[in-house]
Specification:
Blueprint (H helix, E strand, L loop, with lengths): L5 E6 L11 E5 L2 E5 L8 E4 L3 E4 L5 E4 L4 E4 L7 H11 L10
Antiparallel strand pairs: 1-2, 2-3, 4-7, 5-6
Amino acid sequence: MSKRKVEFVSYSGKPPGLCYGVLTLRIDGREVVCEQFVNENWVRLASGGDFSFDEDGNENVTEGPWTVEVSESLEDLKSDIEKLIYDNIPYGCCGGCV
């Protein structure tokens, strides 16, 4: 059995909403748009960073690795998708959700 091939095409998320982008992948030569819960091919990214205020009201933003969840249809490609995300999308926490 041959292994499926996945490639990074694009990601539309940008600060201040880095977590809220649409990921487009090429899977087995076919372009697939992975939108959160819109179709059977979805990828959900959650920032490993944090956003808070100190006692003086100053913003504290830290960046961290992504937590990646995928639809059942992409489960066999999850480790490849995670690698593509880490290689192509900067670590997040821009504070845009606050």
